[in-house]
Amino acid sequence: MTDPLLILAAGVIIVVGGIIGLKLHPFLALLLGAFVVALMTPASAIEQFALAKGTAPAAALALARKSIGERIATEFGNTCGKIGILIAMAAIIGKCMLESGAAERIIRSMLRLTGIEKAPIAFLVSSFFLGIPVFFDTVLFLMMPLAKAMTIRIGKNYLLLVLCIMAGAAMANSLVPPAPGPLFLVGEMHIPIGLMMVGGTIVGLFTITAGYFFALWANKKWPIPLRDSLDAKLEDIKAIAARETHHLPALGLSLLPVLIPLVFICADTALTALATPGKPLTSSPFLNQFLSLVKFFGDKNIAIVTGGIAALLILARQKKDSKESLTAFVQAALMSGGGIILITAAGGAFGGMLQQTGISARIADMTREYQMALIPMAFFIAAVVRTAQGSATVALITASGILSGMASNAHLEFHPLYLGLAIGCGSKLVPWMNDAGFWIICKLSNLTEQEALKTISPLLVVMGLTGLVVIMIAAQLFPLV
């Protein structure tokens, strides 16, 4: 019973069966799944997993000797450390933007530019280009309040807007540097970063187009209404939508909670790309100090806290004639955000326990001698690893590690770029309950687990497969060698 595939199957049955069959709360089902997976994983597999990651032998042995509870808590804490502040502050930004009317002001301006019919396309394209410099989950946090306000404004198409946001952010995250996965991939496979950016953007635009058509179909087949939530009550959003425009904050002011994190994170990304380790960027001490300040605010946690402060100031300005305290608004936001943090961290713990089984190495061994064309093979390896353990970044790293030797083969009939793009598209398949991003989108959008599994998961499958077809055609027509 120590085969990683059997352990994976047991974990899947417990989590999916617990949530859908037994109606367990996702937090409990994911922790139970993580406990069973950890219990079934032998110490030797944990040690091998740690060594494969480059951990020192003594540290790998120490990890293998940790108790099950300690290992689960460590992965839970690691996930919480990555997303805890982001989710809490994003919940505050979302609540403040809705309550102050900032989201409504942005939506009215967007509708003037695009019209009602093209609003979903605006969400799709905006999310894709936001997803290039900004982390996937940050895009969701910034865009979801706008989707709720837009739904109230046009009275329909909530699922369509949610899927458009998901489609744009997800594809940019795995195809276009400087997102972390593609950055690792271009280094491992020796692909010029500029070529990957251009190729990833072109393939990404094809995939999000396919995603848009799927979203249109899904929205007609399973129309899902905007629902009440602790931080965004429908009656409050409707009351804001009925306000006169002159009672709403100015557009420039309304954009600040979104633009501040975006500008700082983009600036930090650009400076990191331009920097040479150990060397200052310029010869001017003053300019170097200024750039250090930009990098300080460019940290994703600090950037989103700064955006949160801007959102609170806008809300305070709009409520200056009201006796309502800001504490009540923040409390409602944090109650909602706290639930998302717990479920997402439990999902991270479950995914972390699956990774410690050695599932990625097991899949690598299974596919190493698989005689098939290289591009579909790259796609297949990344897809299986992603589905098995939940992380698109881990799937990218695993698949690029397996195929990096083939990518440098002088007899390859096409540029390694196409292998890298195939890995990026494969890493999108298939998001489900072992994926922290799955829970973030579920809880931010108020979709049930079943609704997410029949809309979001197929959406990414459609986009991933579209990308594979586009890549194979492009490799034939434009081999670039």
From TrEMBL:
Q: What is its main location?
A: membrane
Keyword Cell cycle appears in the UniProt entry: no
Task: Give the UniProt keywords, A-Z.
Answer: Cell membrane, Membrane, Transmembrane, Transmembrane helix, Transport
Question: What is the originating organism of this protein?
Answer: Spirosoma endophyticum
Q: Which family does it belong to?
A: Belongs to the GntP permease family.
Q: How does it sit in the membrane?
A: Multi-pass membrane protein
- A GO molecular-function descriptor: gluconate transmembrane transporter activity
Instruction: Name the chain's protein.
Output: Gluconate:H+ symporter, GntP family
What's a Pfam family in this record? Answer: GntP_permease
The protein's matches in InterPro entries, at most eight in alphabetical order, are given as:
Glcn_transporter (IPR003474)
Q: Where in the cell is it found?
A: Cell membrane
Quote the cellular component terms of the Gene Ontology held in the record. Answer: plasma membrane
Q: Which residue ranges run through the membrane?
A: 6-22, 27-46, 121-146, 158-176, 196-217, 253-276, 296-316, 328-350, 370-388, 459-478
Going by the entry's taxonomy, the superkingdom of the source organism is recorded as Bacteria
